């Protein structure tokens, strides 16, 4: 049995730890936004957790790059991970650190069944929805002309933006908020395409399975028909012999 490449073994062993780190980052990212009145110590702890998680992501990327058989194609295929590692200080890209983790999980699920892949896509939708809401709230809450002041407003805006409905009752007024809106719209369209393609692939696989089963049954019926015909011929031959 051929042994898996070292990079694939590393990714399999680090999948669960990265997911746990993503949850830790989620809490650290959300607390200062949801609780703007939190004390300085809480904010410092959350910032420290974010940096620790970012360091783990950076280390994971470097290890995977070192273990890759062809490094330049690896960099091209994982450009979003590289952007999230190199640009951790910019506010919009704090969200990309979460997106990069979701992408890691999604890439490792490519060989899984359609049901498992759908689960990862649903998790990506929820993650983008919640952290898009937190990101836009942190940007728009203090804007003089902004109308996204509460977490409920932000969640509603993120939901209508990801589904490209856009009621217009809440909208970002800052450049940063509009950049987040573009990212959410593109992500929503992309995830909808993945879900649609996954459902179509499931139906096609199901129909192909039914076709194979139908062909097998048809062949079995044909074989049975030929056997019955052969038995009739033998029976007719026996009757002719007995008459003589």
From TrEMBL:
InterPro entries: K_chnl_dom, VG_K_chnl, Volt_channel_dom_sf. It is found in: Membrane. Pfam families: Ion_trans_2. It is a multi-pass membrane protein. The chain crosses the membrane at residues 117-137, 179-205. It comes from the Bacteria. Keywords: Coiled coil, Ion channel, Ion transport, Membrane, Transmembrane, Transmembrane helix, Transport. Residues 135-203 form the Potassium channel domain. Residues 214-241 form a coiled coil. Its main location: membrane. One of its GO terms (biological process) is monoatomic ion transmembrane transport. PANTHER family: POTASSIUM VOLTAGE-GATED CHANNEL PROTEIN SHAB (PTHR11537:SF254), VOLTAGE-GATED POTASSIUM CHANNEL (PTHR11537). This is Potassium channel family protein.
């Amino acid at each position: 049995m051929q042994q898996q490449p070292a990079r694939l073994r590393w990714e399999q062993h680090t999948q669960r730890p990265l997911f746990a780190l993503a949850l830790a980052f989620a809490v650290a990212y959300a607390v200062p936004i949801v609780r703007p009145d939190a004390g300085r110590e809480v904010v410092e702890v959350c910032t420290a957790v974010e940096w620790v998680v970012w360091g783990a992501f950076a280390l994971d990327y470097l290890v995977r790059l070192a273990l890759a058989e062809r490094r330049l194609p690896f960099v091209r295929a994982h450009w979003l991970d590289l952007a999230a590692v190199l640009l951790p200080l910019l506010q919009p890209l704090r969200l990309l650190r979460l997106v990069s983790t979701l992408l890691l999980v999604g890439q490792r699920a490519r060989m899984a069944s359609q049901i498992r892949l759908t689960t990862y896509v649903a998790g990506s939708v929820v993650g983008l929805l919640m952290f898009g809401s937190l990101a836009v709230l942190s940007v728009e809450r203090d804007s003089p002309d902004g109308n996204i002041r509460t977490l409920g407003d932000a969640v509603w805006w993120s939901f209508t933006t990801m589904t490209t409905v856009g009621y217009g009752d809440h909208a970002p007024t800052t450049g940063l908020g509009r950049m987040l809106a573009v990212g959410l719209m593109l992500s929503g369209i992309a995830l909808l395409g993945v879900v649609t393609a996954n459902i179509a692939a499931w139906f096609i696989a199901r129909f192909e399975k039914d076709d194979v089963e139908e062909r097998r049954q048809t062949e079995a019926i044909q074989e049975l028909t030929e056997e019955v015909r052969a038995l009739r011929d033998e029976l007719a031959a026996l009757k002719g012999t007995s008459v003589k």
